[in-house]
Amino acid sequence: MNNYPAILIIAPLLGAFFAGLAAWIQERLSYPLALISLALSTFASVNVLMEVIANGTVHYRMAGWAPPMGIEYRIDLLNAMVLVLVSSIAFLNLLASYQNVEQETHDRAASFYVAYLLFVVGLLGVVATGDLFNLYVLIEITSLTSYTLVALGDRDRAPLASLNYLFIGVIGASFYLLGVGYIYIITGSLNMVDVAGILPNLPGSSTVLVGFILCLLGVWIKMALFPLHVWLPNGYTYAPTAFSRVVAPLMTKVMVYVMIRLMITVFGLEYIFVTLHLSEAVVWLGTIAIVFGGIMALAQKNLKKMLSYIIVCEIGYMVGGAWLGNELGMTGAILHIVNDALMTFALFLALGNIVYKIKDVDYSNLSGLFGKMPWTMAGFVLAAFSIIGVPPTCGFFSKWYLILGAFEAGAYHFAAALLISSLICAVLFFKVFEICFFAPEGNGLSHDNSHGHGDPVIVMDEAPVASLVTLGIVSLALILVGVYSGTIVNTIILPFLR
Amino acid sequence: MKLLGFIIVCLTGTFLLYGTSDLPDWGDPNSPASLHLSNHYIEKAVAETEVPNLVTAVLADYRGFDTMFETAVVFTAGLACFLLLRDFKPKEDRYYRHVPTGVVLHFKDKARQLRVGTEFEAVDKDWVPSDMVIKTVCRILIPFIQIYALYVVAHGDFSPGGGFQGGVIFGSSFILLAISYNLKTLMKRVSEKFLGIFSAVGVLIYVGIGAIAMVMGGNFLDYSTLAPLLPVNPGHIRALGMLGVEIGVGIAVMAVMAIIYINIVSQGRHDEGL
Amino acid sequence: MTEIISLVVAKYNYWLYIVLMMIGLYAMIAKNNLIKKLVGMNIFQTAIILFYVSIGYKTGATIPIIKNAHGSHGAEAAVIHAAEYINPLPHVLMLTAIVVSVATFGVAMALCVRIYQRYQTLEEDELRMRLSEK
């Protein structure tokens, strides 16, 4: 009996409670326990991916009950890929963030790790599950832990940002729950595949339509699509570094995954694109999200907030791509889940290193960073190139698919928005590079200059080694995923879509 | 904001009303929701699990995986209150009462402390002597509440009840103690460490039973594989597995209720509160 | 006329839940005090619970605890008619949803306490004023 699908989620769950218990005996034990459990989870998810590629979809019956009665994990190529992404990013981040946690929340570090593990458990479960209601419970675990962890950040503003996040998040989750209720009342089932089998027998039902839109609205709120994004920038900006590094790349991307899963597995592409006439409106929404996110990012004066708005912009890419209604667009959207998670992770890793050394990342404090932290900035530049979409990095390829898809669907406005956003990102990042590269005299460096006389001397002052190594690994991944994106598309995404 | 709220509410309400037009009638025994899965549960659950309370059977067995995460959600809430509010700094002002004479001493200095014992006892700033009647009634009542909570947990398989309900009742007996006496009395009986450990142990019992089933060669949470471990009729093993996880749930909920209450009323200082 | 009455009888539960839910949503959007928003949030979530519990109801059926299940093992057990018991599944789901909403409420309360400790107020406009001062 192959238990990897259960282990990949049980390992961090058990890890969380053992870390919680260990904290009462010896606080230092929690960190290695957390690390081990996430390593186990990564190992299991890689194994699951191998097996799915070799033998097709993996079914795992929780408690041994057959699907519509019990809860089933149904892991196909898409889940398996996202599972590997989530578990490995969570593991790498924990590896990188030990010093950051010690710096920011040292008196409750053990509890921080427990909450962090529960957050990852929720994300993994959301990706792995094949049951609509189970998805809701797991979304709530991720949400509750992220409200908590966001509030641990900036003392003045984080609790308020977190409370706003909570109010909006509860509305989103409740809409999703209500949508599931509408689907349940009309189909009598909660299993995704089972529901998908029943829905075609109910053509033109207003209940199904309302259920679908409610689920979609709920997921959109959670993923911060443009008019519903208000919680994201503040929440991510004021969160503690170690947590913003994992929530920024994963939370929104996992929600995009949920949207694609609902579209493809539950409601079916035929229902969405043939029966309903929503796709054009949603692609417009994506277009507006891209442009709005870009413009708001331009207006920011704080590096962390600027990056948060870039996430809003990137969400537009994926939602628009998924709703173009052709294979190229969907391929681009799915590939962009992977690429964007990696790019955002690299950016936030670098950002975390910068925050570790200079507390406040307003643009005015950044001058001279290239000299001070050359390795961090090298990773930052690479990630920025990927966001802009410079060829050898992975960001280029998903954008390429998205633009091709947009042309095929005749959505020229979307293609234009993609190009404009590349331009905006280029402007944004070169502005940052300019500030970081040229150090105006006596500005921002004065506190590093212990010599006391006028000439500022740039002293190299890098972040902890673990963070740098992780950043190196992720930068390498950015290029490798870019080079092998053809392989990913051919072995994982296209077989999944066909 | 008020106008905007009103417009959003009207739009959402109309949209939801539109959705109800197609819903099956309320109480219709032939609605899809009452036919597809529900019939299987009602007709087969007793034969398959030997638990007459179908809600418990579905909760702890068919959808036991959901319930495990639900327990994890409860644990998360307790953890959140601890993480957000716990404040380890001792308070500046402290009050002690000399028990034989009833004189209250006020310390403003952080460094100086009195040993609390038979002679002196620590009291709250806005301390009000609790009423004798309330104290006595609560003291008599609390053991019965706790016994009843244990009954609700243990009898969840056969009658309305289960781990969550029992845990909440047990937790509320702690809260009653804190209200009728004061927070210190509660903290003396159940320490923070006790609660912290029990909240994790409760969920661990649940996950652990699932993991043991996995080690025994079945799927995660498949109680039927536990049969070789326990000297009972193999048909009854699922019911026992459910009882086990319900006990875990009860312990976790009890501890978390107390953690949430203690942290919120004392603003994380665990010294005085409601 | 009878049509309307039968429609009302058939659907009033669903309409009531919408009314409740909208009250909650309005409070969450429009109220100024954070605790009032929390109360709105609770009403909002409770409305969904009402909806789910209405799904489970069947006319003429009783609570889903099988009668006389004791002592009658295996084959000789009485035949169970599905029409006699209401649907247990929505109740299970709502047990989960109630627990989740309580947990959310606890976290939100803790956040409110944190905010109050820092700013000594829970009125949103005052909080916004305080934030813009800095």
Structure overview:
Chain A has 498 residues and is mainly alpha-helical. Helices cover 76% and strands 2% of the residues of chain A. Chain A is built from 21 helices and 2 strands. In chain A, 65% of the residues are buried. Chain B has a domain at 52-87 and 130-265. Helix content of chain B is 60%, strand content 5%. The longest helix of chain B has 29 residues, at 237-265. The two termini of chain B are 35 Å apart. The mean pLDDT of chain B is 86. Chain C has 134 residues and is mainly alpha-helical. Chain C has a single domain, classed as Helix Hairpins (Orthogonal Bundle), CATH 1.10.287.3510. In chain C, 70% of the residues lie in helices and 0% in strands. Chain C has helices at 2-30, 34-56, 88-119, 124-133. Chain C starts with a helix and ends with a helix. Chains in contact: A-B, A-C, B-C.
By DSSP (H or I, 4+ residues per run), the number of helices of chain C equals: 4
Largest sheet of chain C: none
How many separate domains make up the residues of chain C? 1
CATH architecture of chain C: Orthogonal Bundle
Number of helices of chain B: 9
Overall 3D form of chain B: globular
Total strand segments of chain C: 0
CATH class of chain C: Mainly Alpha
Element pattern of chain B in H and E = HHHHEEEHHHHH
Question: Strand order across the biggest sheet of chain B?
Answer: 2-1-3
Range of helix content of chain B: 55-70%
* Strand element count of chain B: 3
Distance between the termini of chain B: 35 Å
Mean pLDDT of chain C: 86
- Rg of chain B, Å, rounded: 25 Å
DSSP strand content of chain B:
under 5%
